[in-house]
Every structure is written in structure tokens, then in C-alpha cells.
Amino acid sequence: MIPRYSRPDMVAIWSPETKFRIWYEIEAHACDAQAELGVIPQANADAVWKAKDVDFDVARIDEIEAVTKHDVIAFLTHLADIIGNDEARFVHQGMTSSDVLDTCFNVQLARAADILIADVEGLLAALKRRAYEHKDTVRIGRSHGIHAEPTTMGLTFARFYAEMDRNLSRLRDARAEIATGAISGAVGTFANIDPAVEEHVCAKMGLVPEPISTQVIPRDRHAAFFATLGVVASSVENIATEIRHMQRTEVLEAEEFFSKGQKGSSAMPHKRNPVLTENLTGLARLVRGMVIPALENVTLWHERDISHSSVERNIGPDATITLDFALARLTGVIDKLVVYPNNMLANMNKFRGLVMSQRVLLALTQAGVSREDAYSLVQRNAMKVWEQGKDFKEELLADPDVCAALSPEAIEEKFDLGYHTKHVDTIFARVFGED
Amino acid sequence: MIPRYSRPDMVAIWSPETKFRIWYEIEAHACDAQAELGVIPQANADAVWKAKDVDFDVARIDEIEAVTKHDVIAFLTHLADIIGNDEARFVHQGMTSSDVLDTCFNVQLARAADILIADVEGLLAALKRRAYEHKDTVRIGRSHGIHAEPTTMGLTFARFYAEMDRNLSRLRDARAEIATGAISGAVGTFANIDPAVEEHVCAKMGLVPEPISTQVIPRDRHAAFFATLGVVASSVENIATEIRHMQRTEVLEAEEFFSKGQKGSSAMPHKRNPVLTENLTGLARLVRGMVIPALENVTLWHERDISHSSVERNIGPDATITLDFALARLTGVIDKLVVYPNNMLANMNKFRGLVMSQRVLLALTQAGVSREDAYSLVQRNAMKVWEQGKDFKEELLADPDVCAALSPEAIEEKFDLGYHTKHVDTIFARVFGED
Amino acid sequence: MIPRYSRPDMVAIWSPETKFRIWYEIEAHACDAQAELGVIPQANADAVWKAKDVDFDVARIDEIEAVTKHDVIAFLTHLADIIGNDEARFVHQGMTSSDVLDTCFNVQLARAADILIADVEGLLAALKRRAYEHKDTVRIGRSHGIHAEPTTMGLTFARFYAEMDRNLSRLRDARAEIATGAISGAVGTFANIDPAVEEHVCAKMGLVPEPISTQVIPRDRHAAFFATLGVVASSVENIATEIRHMQRTEVLEAEEFFSKGQKGSSAMPHKRNPVLTENLTGLARLVRGMVIPALENVTLWHERDISHSSVERNIGPDATITLDFALARLTGVIDKLVVYPNNMLANMNKFRGLVMSQRVLLALTQAGVSREDAYSLVQRNAMKVWEQGKDFKEELLADPDVCAALSPEAIEEKFDLGYHTKHVDTIFARVFGED
Amino acid sequence: MIPRYSRPDMVAIWSPETKFRIWYEIEAHACDAQAELGVIPQANADAVWKAKDVDFDVARIDEIEAVTKHDVIAFLTHLADIIGNDEARFVHQGMTSSDVLDTCFNVQLARAADILIADVEGLLAALKRRAYEHKDTVRIGRSHGIHAEPTTMGLTFARFYAEMDRNLSRLRDARAEIATGAISGAVGTFANIDPAVEEHVCAKMGLVPEPISTQVIPRDRHAAFFATLGVVASSVENIATEIRHMQRTEVLEAEEFFSKGQKGSSAMPHKRNPVLTENLTGLARLVRGMVIPALENVTLWHERDISHSSVERNIGPDATITLDFALARLTGVIDKLVVYPNNMLANMNKFRGLVMSQRVLLALTQAGVSREDAYSLVQRNAMKVWEQGKDFKEELLADPDVCAALSPEAIEEKFDLGYHTKHVDTIFARVFGED
């Protein structure tokens, strides 16, 4: 994660301040539950809340950690300095560091997921708006990068909407995967702490108790979470690639928004680069690369080894911050994308009418012309378009053999764009609902 | 995929015979729908069903494909040979190859998912049985590969059960992800075919119509599917690794089942290798390696490029066949795993009672001894165990300073294994339900 | 690996016949060395060579393996059937299965590397030929998919040549990485066999003795090997992507060769799909996906675990067969690529002269016009081109303010393509040598 | 990259200060070459060196970039502020941003490689020292985690030495891969700048001119570089895993150094966790995860797209900093590893003499006992060891049938450890050279 590709709300989730705040809340709620169980005095539990509005001193905690070599102990020492050593002496009782660390990590991931979910919702709104705006903007559909049949720009936006809507579901599932907490002790047996503490803390922190943990929360959950981010990132790349293609000089069906004042825009109007979507392509690679380490993290030795930790200290922030940034950037790109309907028409007509050759071929055979003859008829006219730049429809209308099989109206009809757009409403209803 | 790591039911899904059967069904159902719409004659639709019980001649289709260079055309030619050229002439009308290929692929993936789901259910049954069998079999819990606190073998099985139960949910979700079909034409506009055909075919094939497709079904679905297989495979490795650890000579808490007759077993009883779980570790790597290509497949150019195809021709069969084999092999391993409770106790007592030192330390401080003094008391007795092989409890009972703080009963209590297993029932109830 | 993407020579390397032949040679050479050392009788060593021209019966070996559950023992049993039990009784003495398996695997990988090296050499020849053919074929260079400055098609071929030439070096290094053998016994100590045997066998098999092995040859070698294949595959994708871009309808600067008879080519001349290069893109993903499992294979427990084996049984053949096929396919594509120089010129002139605007801007400032004024002068003429389709040079020549700073000749010179191609020979000399 | 896993020298390479310093040097040397060519005045070239000892003001450059949205322009503006606008007006003439950015990136990577190479050299020294120290320290070799035959701890260190020595070669090759520079203009044609400038700058910066570049240096070089880091990281994990295994409670053949004062060490002497090597396992996953994005970066559109940039801004620092930290940490671990030869012997003798059963079996058959009888003899004595804890050698010596075939001396000889270590010197000579 680097500042250039970061947004503050997501970064804040991963700050030391946030982390210590979550640790504090876990410890304080655990004390409440312990007091309720009669394990520790109520007064001591109450005392912990004295720090409720205190800003923890990160630098001070770091200093202590430099000595103790233990982050949780450093924090607890600092907390004791605030609420008093005597009052603090039951804090963390019966817990292991992982109870705090793992539960905190999942709180952070859940909050990160909330932002990502909101990001996708924002992107969906933009995609929907642009889809309706360009519902009937005809452009050529392409398979293999080659002109196939007409479609509309609205359908392009709509399919990205549908894809991102699936990602929304996946993110919600992914959030549920990691929104669990565990306060179950050194090997998960609750030997030193009652399961009721876990239940209380989880309820307060918005988590579900992990049904069975060891020293740690099982990492298949995190693997599923990061794998989902990898899928979402790949969808970001998919959309970004479409736009990069549309913006290339020879296509020019759309451009990323380029503000008037932006340097070089008008002296070199042909040189507006799709740098945002290119950047998104790279960011997708980054997020995708974090999937494998997350999958490798699933295998831990016995009740835990700590190999996952260094991975997560990196990919926890990096994957969520990068994806958040990418989704927001993509939303901006979609929102302001400059679409060129005229260029779309011009491109479609590059080989004047040739994209309709398959319909004509089909019509001829349906009119009783043998497959071979039909093929030959289409071919001789198509080659005039291809080689001499003639207009396909005009050639057909002037070809007596074609006209013997098809009326001028029938020929005209084959070039009707409405033929290709007649089900757009149906598809929109499927994607956006029937309203 | 190689035969050594394959099972026949899963392999059969990916056979040419199955593929052509599915193609046939798609085409036949499409004809029914076309006839219902009045687009083609009912008689022609009916005629297609003449091939219902015919075994397609794969070699013949391959021969035709060698000439036409087109697999779907080769199949249709063969079909026409069977039902008659005239009867066959409306087959595939308005459809593109991808309508058949993509819908077929998803049928295959959905069936593959069904097998994988059944595999996991079988594995869950084995894990549950072994969990209850060893619910109270005490063994040492380990963090960092180092003895921590006691747990039970039943909890180990139970946590693998919980992990695989999550994988069951994930596989069901993954199945839903790819159980869609599309018959929407060259660029997904339904220009040449009514959406009703897609609806009919999908209903018959057990699929949901893809709300919006291009020439292909969007590949984020497949990415999510294969990513899920990667998570499941990683869980397989997680369980396999636990067993490999348990079987290593110095630990020997369990062994993969080794049949009496198996060569070398009794002349070299110490040399029984966990080759099945080692193999599972490798198979997990293979499945995991297929996640990235599946994620890269999401980005296709415009309405489709065919880059995804060669990837899927490989990972479609390979990932599902490998994971099916792995799950079945793991189920066998779990089912017949030879567990050595006595060795578990012996391991736990390797450093006679030392694993309880933390409890003693805590008890001393709770009894009012200062942290420093408590630490010192534990230390001097622990070192006698560590360096001279003494018994920790006996040393404590013989240490007057310890006995001044703790009664003999209190000391004895710290070595009570029941302390560690008291919540096993609670955890089992969470994992397996309250019955 | 599937037949569709396979070539016979590479497939043959991975056949059971080849494998058993290599095993046989290893065993026979080992016997020679053992006899030379006086460890086994010379007659027994000689007897092994009786099988020199015998075709091993793979089906029979499989039958035996089905009983013994051990592939090497099955082979040795079959060998003994051929040369006589008594004669065979010193075969494999002092060796472990891995001595044979690992050494064989490296022989196979080295041979596979030889084919890949020859593939790249063939590709280089094609690239070089096309580079010289199109050394002076001007086309527009593009950054971000947007027109930048002119370059030549020859430079494009030349840079792919340089890239593949680097891959040639990498493949040679990769071959050296895995061309080692080991006959060092159960844990690599040569306890039961003299190092001289390893030396003799390796010399005969074209390998270098592994300086220190355990039961296996260290897998960092294989990781480096497969990582190299991943790099080469990525270069294949790089070239494939360039061609896919060139073939897209709006660009049409080149096309994959499309034989006259190929269906649909002339009735739909606009619909020739770059299916070969799209396919190469997918194959690259496959090979790349095998890098991670190979890297994960490096970590084996102690003197070996067998987790690497299932991975290698797959990626050994799959990665080499796929890459061989891809390189050969790419060579064919390059060799026959249809290049359209006229379209290249037409594309370059799409925005009539605008690609030269930066040169004009620079020339104005060098002529003493202030940056702001120069910018403004270029801008007002550029916008006429962009918005009204005027010709940039003509507008400049007609702009008195421009002409006040630059002579007509100077303006003309800015549009001289020779300016951009003047160093092509220098670059070619760098890439192809000074001849 | 996070501070916790970073070392200052490597971090410094990636600081903005270093980057601007390198940019400056590139620009200054380019001016020299331009002046030498007569393209710009010598005085202007000389003026640039006025900034030679100036510390650039990163914050100021960032401010300018916030306005210009262009990092290189921001730097050049700042440079002009320092040396004077008039003096600076020929700086960067004929160059594009990528000339500076790409050349700088490769300088940084080459310097990073130098540190990594030094890291590996340091690690090699530690491994060699420990190898000789424990050349004759016998321990059991293990395949599949199961006792196989004796080996020595020195051989373990020696094989890690050999593996890391290969990594040293690979890193040197990787350094050579990326130690190139390019100053070739917008599409690599040198249209606006003479190749002599590139040659001069590269020579001064310790680089080789890239034979053919586009706007960028080809990314197959970087892919090969990062793939190599992935191999090295995997070797780090391999060594780390060996140590983690050795430290697990039941094995305890070695421990990471644990300073006397370290908390908990003596009160819980059994609870020293191999946290450093566990951490290395995670760091290896991180570096490995960066290989795939680097491979995906190879494919750029035409003469460049900028998708690689965001990837490299992350993995450039992250991969090198992480690997540097990992290598240094591993060196410390090896250097101070506490080895327990007595525990090695105790482990080897866990099943008293059974590891020799294969040698006895072989000796019996060589003494003329039939395979079946020999097997049966070994078996009945082995089972007494396995089930009743007897000593294998004593049982054999007491078995009249065994003694009928083998003399007591012959039996004793089978238990001679010297048999297994006799070639250690040979292997050491291979690994470390003949001296």
C-alpha cells in the first residue's frame, strides 16, 4: 500500500490508533463479562471504562514494546498507566494475545468490507445511470476484437452492473466469513476463560463467536475473504480493459474524462491517455497476487503457528486499501466517462454494411437459395465492399441475383438496427428489475 | 489430470461422450422451444428426439472436425447423419456455438460441484464419527509446534469438521455461481433467437438463465468457482499437514492406516510413511495453482475473446478431478486413521508436568505472591525438570516456598486434565448441534 | 495437457515407454559402475544390456505395479523377467527409488528444454526474417493505446526478437539448472553406494552429479526451471497481444494467416478472428499458473517428503507440452502473419498530421516563441484538425503566426517520417549484430 | 512493506530522496552527452552540476506535483529553481519521462540486488561455518518425516549452503537482467535524442544500454528478476521449515537462540517458540505472491501501457525489502542456532536400533538367507523392539537363527555409524571446494 493509491477512511481502519482502540474495547467488554460471571470484581471492570475517551499514545506504546518485545503487553502496560495499576490488574485475565489480535483483525476486516460494499454500491449507481443513459446508443458488438453484430452501450454498462452486483453479494458473503471473534485461550479449550466472555465480547463488537477455534481463528475464512477480493479486482480489470479498448485512437468510442485545464489536452487532443483504467489494471494484478499467500495461510501447524501473521500484516491493509481505491477510481471513471455515439456509428460502418452479411446470408437460404449459392452471392458483394470500399446494401440492391431472391424491402430490413435492439428492454428488466 | 489421481464418476463428466450428450440435449430442448414459438416446425423439433438413445460416435465427430475445424459443426453434421439431413435443418437455428459450449460447460461444472459436495459430506461424516470417538482423548495442544496446553483429539477432528462444513457452504454457493446458461446469440442481444428459448433450455438443464450475457457467460462466475476450489484444497492441505505431523517418528500420535500385508510394514515397523497425506499436500498445490488462471480469465475483450477457452479445457477437468480425488482420499485417511492415545499422553508428559507451569505461575500470583517472586519460584523448579528430568509437580510439592502459598490440593489441582476439557461438550454442541 | 494443445515429440518425452527406457539406462549404467568398482560381478552388469533393444511392456509393468504398489519394483520385476532373475539380482543394488525417479525426471526435463530451446530458435528465425522484411514499414507507435510517434513494424518484430533471445538464454540456464542427477541413497550419504556410480551414470546420461542431495535432488532447481517457463510464456502472451491488437477491426494492421479455403473467410472478410493468438494468451495463463506450485515444492520436510511428486507428475508434462505447443504456434503465426502497410499509414494519418504536434510545439519554442504562445499556436490549429477534420500541416502553413516563426520548409520537415526512422539501422545492428 | 520487516539500507534505496538523486544524475549525465554532441551548450550542461551537493526538497517537489500532476515535471521545476531557469532550459531535452523513470527503476533494482547478493554471501558464510562445526554431528535422516538412515547435521547445513549458493548465482543473473537503461524517446526510435546519450548515461549509471526499447524497457527482464526473488524466498522457507521441525517439542534437535533475559524463557523452558523461522515462512509467501503480478506485467499494449507502474511501485520496494529482511533474519538464526547433538542421538535411538533394520535385512540376504526368511528374521526381532521396547541389536545377537547367518562382529558392524558418514568429506569437498 502506498499513499498514492490509498483513501483515508480505509487507511484509518489500519492505523495503530484504530487497532489499539479495538484492543481496548475487546479488553473492556471482556472485563464486563468476567465481572458479570463473578470472576473479577465489578469495580475493576468499571475502572477500565475510564479510558473510554482517552487517546492512546502510540509512540509510548511503541517505546514499551521496544523493551518488552510484545505488542499486547506493551498496550496493557500503557492502559494500566492510564487507569491505574491496581485497577488494571484483572484486565486480560485468562486471555491470550491471539484472543485480542485475531478478534481485532476480524473487526478491521469487517469494517474494511463495509467500505468495499459501499464502494461497490456507489459503482453500481454510476453503472446503472450510464446504462439507462445509453440504453439505445448503438455500437458494434465485437468478438475476438472483430466486429460481430450491433449491440448498445447501455448493454455494456448493464453487464458490468450485473457483474458488480454479483461482486456485491460475494463481498457480503466474504464479510460474513470473517466477522467472527474468538476468546478461547491458548489452544481454544476455554480452560482459563468462560465461553460466556467470548459471547459477550463478540456481541458487543458486532461479531459472531467462532464455533471452534484453536489459539487462532481458522484461516480458511480469511482465504475465502481475500479470494473474493481477487475476484472483485479481476472484475475491475475487466471493466477497465473495456474502457482502454474504447479509448484507443482507432476506436475512440469513449474517453476518460479530461478536465479542460489538464496540461496538453488541447494542443494534443489526440493524446489523451486512459491512465486511470491502465492504473486499475495494475492494481487488479496486485490484489490478485495476494490471493495465493492467503490460500497458503490456511495450513497452520497444530493449534497455530505464526507464519500467517506477517502475511496478514501486509495483505490485510494492502488488499483492502488497494481495492477500495480501485473501486472508487473506477466509479469516477464510469461516472464521468465521455461517450462518443457518433464514433460508435462510424466504427460500425467502417466496412459499410458488412457486419450484416451474416443476416443476408441467412435470409437468402431461408428464401430458398442453396447454401452454396447464397454464400457465393454474399461473397461477391462483400468483396466489393472489402476491396473497393463500396456500400454493401447498395451492392446487394444492385445485384439482380440477390434481388431475385429478396425484395428491396427485405434487403433493407436486414440493415435495420432495431432488429438487434429489440430485446434490450427485456435484458434491462432482468438486470435492474421490472420497474 | 492423470489417471493416478482420478476417480471415474468425475472423469466421466468430462468425457467427450458426456459433452456431446449435453450438447444434444441443449439443441433438442432449444428446438422444442423454437417450435413452441412457431419459429420452426414441430415435426423438426420432434425429429431431434429420435437420437435420444443413440450413442454418438466420438471418433466420427472427431473425423468431421478434422475437416471442418469446428467442433459444434462437426457434432451437428453427425447429428444430421443420425436424424436425417432434412429433419435436422432447423437444429441450432439462431444460435451461436458459444450458446452450446458455455451452457454445456456450466452443466458440467454444476455436476462436478454435486460430486464435490457429496465428497465433502462424506468427509464430514468421517470427521464427525472420529470426533465423537476421540472427544475425550487428551493430547497436548501446540502453538508454534511447541507444547502449550492440553486439548483433545476430538477437538482436532471437530475443528476440521467445522472447517469442512464451511467449505460445504462455499461449494454450494460456488455451484449456484456457475449453474447458469445462456442462449443469447453472437453478442448477447437475442437478435436471432427469442429469450424464451434460453429460459426453456435452462429450465430443462437445471440452470438459471444468465440475466445478461455477451457471446459468453461472464467469467467472474467461473473465477469465483475455481477460487472456491482453491480454498477447499487449502483446507485439505491443512488437515493433511496435521496428520503428517502426528505421524512423524518423534510424535507418532497417529498413522495412516497400513494394511497388514503391505510390504515392509512389520520388518520396518518404524517406517510407515504418511504418503497419502503428503500426496494430498501436493494435490492442494495443483488446485491452488489453477486459481490465478481462472482469475485472469475474467478480463475478456469486448463481447468475448477466446483466451479463456484453452484455460478452461484444462482447469475444468483438472481442478475438479483432482479435488474430487483429494477429498475422497482424505476421507479414507480420516476414516481409517490409527490413533495412539497412549503416545499422546507420553508426548504430553515428555517434560514431566512442565506444560502446567503457566497455571502454577498464575495460581501463585492469585495467591498473593508478587509477579517476580512467583516467576522465580516456578523457574527454579522448572529448571530442575528441564535439566535434570525431575517431575514438576513433585518438585513443587517439595518446595516450601511454593507450599507456603499453595496447599498440596491446590498444587494437585493445577495438574488436573479435567480443567482443560471442561468445555469440550460446549464446543461440540456448537459444532455439531445441540442434540 | 490435452491432445489439442500438444505436439508429438514433446509428448513422447513423457510417455511411459520413454520413462522406462531412461530407468533402464540408469540401472544398466549403474551396474557397469558397480562392476567396475568390484561391487557386483561383471557378468551381471553385462547381462543387463541384453535388454538394450527390448521394448518394455508397459501394460505388464502396470499389472505388476497394481500388485506391488511400487512403480520401480514393478519395472525391476519386468526387467528380471527379460534378462533372467539370476542375472538381474544385482540390479538397483544400493540404490533407492528416488535415485532412479529423480534422475529420470531431470533427463526428461533436460530433453524437454532442448525442444523448447529449438522452438525458440525457430521463432527467432521467423522474427528476424519478418523484422528485416518490415524494417522500413512505417506505423504509428502507441503509448497507452494512443498514437504517439512513428516507428516501424520492423522494430516491433525486432523487439520481440530481442525478448525471445533473452528467453533463449534463460532457457539454456534453466536447462543447466535441472540437468543434474543423483544416486546417493536413502538420505544422500552414499552409505550404500559409492559416489563413483553417480558420476558414471550422470556422465552417461548427459547430466552433472548433484553436489549434495538428500533422498531427492533439491527442488529449488525445478522451481527456477518452471519459473523460467512462466517468463517465456508471458513473453508469448506479450507478442500474441500485439497481434490481437493489430488485427482488431478498427486497426487492421495485420492478420493471422487465413487460408483461402477457410470457411467464412470471403463471405465475411471482416470476420477473421485472431483465434491463434487468443489461444496463446490462454496457454500463457496455464503455464504461468504452474509457477506457484513449483515454488511451493521447494520446501520439503527434512531429507524429503513426497508432496512434490503429484505436482511434478502434472506440471512436468503440462508446462513443457503447453509451452512447446505455444512456441510452435506462435512461430507459425509470425511466419505467415499478413501485414498491411497501407492500413498502417492510414491509421497514422487518422488525425491528419496531429501526431506531429509535439514536434511542431518544440520547434516553435526552439525558434524563440514563448512556451505559452507556442502552445496556443499549436492548439488553435490542432483543434481545427480534431473538430473539423482539417489537415494539420496545411493549417500550420496557412497560419501567419506560425509562419512568422517557422519557414515552410521547417514546417514540412516536421512531418518528415525519415526523422523517426533514422536510427532503425543502429537499433537493428544492436539486436541482430553488426553484420 | 512495513517497518517491522524492513532494514534501513534497502529502505533507503526506495526513498524519494534516492529516487530524485538518481533522476538528477540521469538528467545531468544526459546534458553532458548532449553538450558533447553539440546539441546543447556546454555551459548549460555544466550548470546542472551546480545541484550536485544539494539536497532536493521532497516536500516542495510534492507540492509542485500536486499542481502539475506530473512527477518528472515537478522535479524538473524544482531543479530549475535551484540552478536557475535559464541554465535549466535544456535539461531533459529530447527525453521522455519514461527514459528517466525506467532507467531509475533499474538503478534501484540493481542496487537492491547488490544488497541481496551481499545478504546471501553473509548467509553462506554462516551456513559454511555451522556446516564444518557440525560436520560429524550425527542425526537421523528422515524421509516423509519418518526416520530413515543416519546423516549429519553438517550435511544439512551443507545442502542449504549449496542451495543458497545456487541462489547467489541466480541473483547475479537477475541483477544482470535488470541492469539496463534506456533513453530512447517516446516510442524507442531515438527520434529526438541520439543513441550516444543513452550510452553515456548508462555507462555513468553502471548500466548497459537496452538494445531495443519502446517507451519502456521490456518487462520480461523484470519478470525474470522478481521470479528469481520468488525462488530465493522459497529457499528461505525451506531452511526455515527445517528449523521449525527441529525445534518442535518432540524433536528438539535445535532451537533459535533465546537470550537469557528474554521473558518466559526460564520459567517455561519448554516454551521457546521458533517465531523467527515461522515469520520467515510467512515472508516467503509474500515474496512468492509478487511473482505472478510481475509475470502479468510482461504483456503491455503496443509501445507501452502504464499498467505495470502501480504494480512496480509496490513490488519493487516490497519484494526487495522483504527478502532483504528475510535473508538477514535467516542469517542471524543460522548463526546463533542452538544445536542439541545429544537430542539428535536420543531421537535416532528412539526405537532402539530399528533404523538399522534395512541394513540387517540386506546383510542377511547377502549372507545367503532367502529374502522371505531374512524378512521373517528381521521382523520377529523388530516387533520386539517396536512393541516391547527391546534393543534391536541385543535381540539380533540373541537370535540363534540370525547368528547362524551373521557373526556377532558382522551384526555389530551394521550398527556402526561410521558406515553412514564415510562420504561426508567427499560431499563437503564437492560443496565447499577441495581445499
TrEMBL record, chains A, B, C, D:
Short name of any one Pfam family annotated for the protein: ADSL_C
SMART domains assigned: ADSL_C
EC number(s) given by UniProt: 4.3.2.2
Gene3D superfamilies cross-referenced by the UniProt entry: Fumarase/aspartase (C-terminal domain) (1.10.40.30), Fumarase/aspartase (Central domain) (1.20.200.10), Fumarase/aspartase (N-terminal domain) (1.10.275.10)
Example of a GO cellular component annotation carried by this entry: cytosol
GO molecular-function terms, A-Z: (S)-2-(5-amino-1-(5-phospho-D-ribosyl)imidazole-4-carboxamido) succinate lyase (fumarate-forming) activity; N6-(1,2-dicarboxyethyl)AMP AMP-lyase (fumarate-forming) activity
Descriptive protein name: Adenylosuccinate lyase
